[in-house]
Amino acid sequence: MYNYYNNHHMGHIHQYQGVTTLNDGHTHRYYGCTGEPIPVQGSHVHYYNGYTTLDDGHIHRYYGSTSPAIIVSEGHIHYMEGRTTFIAEHDHEYENNTSPQMYQQYNRCY
């Protein structure tokens, strides 16, 4: 099992981007960076939040926490999914994986 304490003595973040589901005749794009790692049962998660792009005359807010770390060849990623806020009589769902980790000296968010 992935161990946060053995593998993450330095802070790091992840980038993410995606497109929401098609609802009410349109989609929204979203992108950003997670917060710092939060230890959880031998792994860690990240909180994230932001606003979608302006489409069809409005935006939506989204927020949540990622899955625990998923090991990949470049280090690790996280899965994220959720539902935007309800605006203009609808909401949207989103899901994607984050980028591999980016350590503080290299942090660059969109």
Fold blueprint:
Layout: H1 4-7, E1 12-13, E2 15-19, E3 29-33, E4 38-40, E5 43-45, E6 47-51, E7 61-65, E8 70-72, E9 75-77, E10 79-83, E11 93-97, E12 102-103
Structure described in brief:
It contains 1 helix and 12 strands; from the N terminus they run αββββββββββββ. Helices cover 4% and strands 42% of the residues.
- Strand content of the residues, in percent? 35-45%
Structural class: mainly beta
Low-confidence stretches: 1-5
Oligomeric state of the chains present here:
single chain
Order of helices and strands: HEEEEEEEEEEEE
**Fraction of residues in helix:** under 10%
Look at the structure and give the mean pLDDT: 90
Shape: elongated
Numbering strands along the chain, what is their spatial order in the largest sheet?
A: 1-12
- What is the CA-CA span between the terminal residues? 31 Å
Number of strands: 12
Helical segment count: 1
Q: Any idea how many domains? A: 1
C-alpha Rg (nearest Å): 15 Å
Largest sheet: 2 strands, antiparallel
Question: Would you give an account of this structure?
Answer:
This is YmaF family protein. It comes from Alkaliphilus flagellatus. The protein is mainly beta and 110 residues long. It has one domain. Helices cover 4% and strands 42% of the residues. The protein is built from one helix and twelve strands. It has one helix at 4-7; strands at 12-13, 15-19, 29-33, 38-40, 43-45, 47-51, 61-65, 70-72, 75-77, 79-83, 93-97, 102-103. The strands form six sheets. A two-stranded antiparallel ribbon has the order 1-12. Strands 2-3 form a two-stranded antiparallel sheet. Strands 4-5 form a two-stranded antiparallel sheet. Residues 1-5 have low confidence and may be disordered.
